[in-house]
Amino acid sequence: MKLQKQLSRKVDDKEYPKYVVTIPPKQIGEVGWKEGTELIAVVEEGTIVLRPKK
């Protein structure tokens, strides 16, 4: 798994990055997520936890 930084947009001289995490297909299958599943990110004790949006 890898965290990647990508340029989202540039307005005048200011750059706005976004971050992408690639999760292996096997792990996606284990949790039962499908393409297009909306996720939320929760910070818990210095860790980011991804959960499906309800």
The average pLDDT score comes to: 94
Q: What general outline do the C-alpha atoms trace?
A: elongated
Distance between the termini: 25 Å
What Rg, in angstroms, do the CA atoms define? 14 Å
Count of helices?
1
Helix fraction bin: 10-25%
The number of strands is 4
Largest sheet: 2 strands, antiparallel
Q: SSE string, helix = H, strand = E?
A: EEHEE
- Biggest sheet: strand arrangement: 1-2
Whole-number tally of structural domains: 1
Which percent range describes the beta-strand content? over 45%
Low-confidence sequence ranges:
none
Structural class from helices and strands?
mainly beta
What characteristics describe this protein?
54 residues, two-stranded antiparallel ribbon
Explain this structure:
- With 54 residues, the chain is mainly beta.
- The protein has one domain (2-52).
- The protein is 13% helix and 57% strand.
- It contains one helix and four strands; from the N terminus they run ββαββ.
- It has one helix spanning 25-31; strands at residues 2-11, 14-22, 39-44, 47-52.
- The strands form two sheets. A two-stranded antiparallel ribbon has the order 1-2.
- Strand 3 and strand 4 form a beta hairpin.
- It is elongated and about 45 Å long.
